[in-house]
């Protein structure tokens, strides 16, 4: 499992974007994790799935609300990573009004989740292998802080916790 001091694994996430106004997509587009994180401070939070109750009611809204504070604390980008396809993440981005605040990145085959060791097996609930709920602060591709939730919990991966770590 990934830990503080480790480098993010090589992986490609997908991002669905839209052109403002005409509704034509300009995605899904591949996002090379190593290249996208190089030279930046990134707040990454992972969660089990788009449109799921805790993720939609608490996790994403917290990061949208604290986006300005995180940027003021030196965070260049905020990434939400979930084991969903890019089209679902794009629809969820519209629903959560994340534009300009949080990049909604799809880990459709759970490759990033598996490479970090941050998987959650929800096969028994009909959801397959998903991402565990976590947050991490990454500087130039290296993990500086990592907060992994226990099963069914939402206590340490919230935006306020990561904001305090970014300020520290």
Main β sheet profile: 7 strands, mixed
Return the CATH architecture.
Answer: 3-Layer(aba) Sandwich
The tally of helices reads 6
Q: Which bin fits the share of residues in helices?
A: 25-40%
Give me the CATH superfamily: Glutaredoxin
Domain Thioredoxin: 2-168
Protein name: Glutathione-dependent peroxiredoxin
Pfam family, one: Redoxin
Keywords: Antioxidant, Oxidoreductase, Peroxidase, Redox-active center
What does this structure look like?
- The chain has 168 residues and is α+β, with helices and mostly antiparallel strands.
- The protein has a single domain, classed as 3-Layer(aba) Sandwich (Glutaredoxin).
- The chain is built from 6 helices and 9 strands.
- The protein has a 7-stranded mixed sheet with strand order 2-1-5-4-3-8-9.
- A hairpin with a 2-residue loop joins strand 8 and strand 9.
- The protein is globular, with a radius of gyration of 15 Å.
- Residues 2-168 form the Thioredoxin domain.
- It catalyses: a hydroperoxide + 2 glutathione = an alcohol + glutathione disulfide + H2O.
- Keywords: Antioxidant, Oxidoreductase, Peroxidase, Redox-active center.
- It holds the Pfam family Redoxin.
- InterPro entries: PRX5-like, Redoxin, Thioredoxin-like_sf, Thioredoxin_domain.
Summary of the model, kept short:
This protein is α+β, with helices and mostly antiparallel strands and 168 residues long. The chain contains six helices and nine strands, in the order ββαβααβαβαββββα.
